[in-house]
Design a protein that fits this description.
The chain has 290 residues and is an all-alpha fold. The chain is 71% helix and 0% strand. The chain is built from 13 helices and no strands. It has helices spanning 4-20, 27-52, 60-76, 81-84, 105-129, 134-152, 162-168, 173-190, 193-203, 205-210, 215-241, 250-262, 275-289. Helix 2 packs across helix 13, helix 3 packs parallel to helix 6 (134-152) and helix 12 packs across helix 13 (275-289).
């Protein structure tokens, strides 16, 4: 298993962190740690799908930021998304009645994931159908995503209902369980015929095409999956901070890609799975804590 080295490093770092700070393994500390780094873990699993087909996604961080903004706005101002968002009014939730018209958080979260999937679709069309270079295409869509986030929400702020936030922060088991579920779903996807075709496409596109694999469609599916997981990461970030930040995604892109590579995902394509990249992202978090 290519993720075995990074799994060993995770164990070593946990021991070191615990030795330097004995309360590291307490419930409160683990809750804060997993809540902070859960978005990075989710992004690392997402970007590994694009690596699997021999691509890359530099827009994954800004798309996560846009999903965060959409989730916050829908959960706070609801249908006033385009009237209270672009002028920044929604960031001042202390004003009476401004943020009291939101839709249910579950619906807002689904819309955030949908936004991520739509940007994944845009990336997939640019790479698989228009045949643009993945590095440049996703860099451009990343600028678009961050620009849209800034237009909707010019400054950090806003506030979502306290119920979902309290549930997410109630125990370290909640973020851990969510990440395990996401990883298992991603693992199951890679074991489907579509996942096999993704691996074949990343191993050798021409041989995959000769074997009757619809390479553009498979590549498109990989980018949509990556975008959807970026949307999920945006929702997890929202649950952790309970507010929005239009530029927060910039710092997450490199961490996600580095975590995926640390976990064994091949930049040249042909091999990836979710557990190694997830541990790779956790490794970077543990190093930061150390």
């Amino acid at each position: 298993w290519r993720g075995l080295p990074v799994a060993t490093v995770v164990v070593v770092l946990v021991v070191l962190d615990t030795g330097l700070r004995p309360d590291f393994l307490t419930s409160a500390s683990l809750t804060g740690f997993l809540g902070t780094y859960a978005p990075s873990v989710c992004l690392a699993m997402g970007v590994s799908f694009t690596m699997l087909v021999g691509g890359i996604d530099l827009s994954i961080g800004p798309v996560m930021g846009l999903a965060n903004i959409v989730t916050v706005l829908l959960a706070s101002v609801g249908t006033h998304l385009f009237t209270l968002g672009p002028n920044g009014t929604a960031s001042a939730c202390s004003a009476v009645g401004v943020c009291q018209h939101g839709v249910p958080f579950a619906l807002a979260a689904c819309c955030g994931v949908l936004v991520g999937a739509l940007f994944g679709l845009l990336n997939g069309i640019a790479v698989s159908i228009l045949r643009l270079q993945p590095l440049l295409a996703t860099l451009a869509t990343g600028f678009v995503a961050e620009g849209a986030a800034l237009w909707l929400f010019p400054s950090p702020g806003g506030q979502i209902p306290g119920g979902p936030v309290a549930w997410y922060a109630s125990s370290w088991i909640v973020p851990a369980l969510l990440l395990v579920i996401i990883a298992l779903v991603a693992f199951a996807l890679l074991r489907t015929p579509l996942g096999v075709r993704m691996r074949a496409t990343g191993s050798d596109r021409w041989k995959a095409f000769a074997a009757n694999v619809h390479v553009p469609r498979v590549t498109l599916a990989a980018y949509v999956t990556c975008g959807a997981l970026a949307g999920v990461a945006g929702v997890l970030f929202t649950l952790n901070v309970s507010s929005g930040d239009p530029t927060v995604g910039e710092a997450f892109t490199l961490t996600a890609i580095a975590g995926a590579v640390l976990g064994g995902a091949a930049l040249r394509g042909g091999w990836a799975e979710p557990f190694g990249p997830a541990l790779g992202a956790l490794t970077l978090g543990l190093l930061s804590t150390l």
